[in-house]
Fold:
Amino acid sequence: MPGSDQGRPGPHAHPKIDEETLIMPQKMTDQEWEAQNGSLSPEQAQARNLCWCCTGNGVLFTAFGGVQRRVRCPEKCDNGKADR
Structure:
């Protein structure tokens, strides 16, 4: 039937998003986004009982070309806590 919206997604349909690579709204520059990873050295993080990889965040912040993502820490830490 011409002009029919049958078979089209509704105005509230959302594409499936993989939660591990959730794309965040762009409110920061890529550099600001990645700065959330922290500035602790692995030694400083471990001294504070934090994961050496994610420095206590539990996630890593990555960005390229305006696409900003949070990725689970590959060390499989306990929400940023160091394994001892």
Residues 12-18 have pLDDT under 50 and may be disordered. Residues 30 and 63 are 5 Å apart (CA to CA). The first strand starts at residue 59 and ends at 64. The helical segments are 30-34, 42-47.
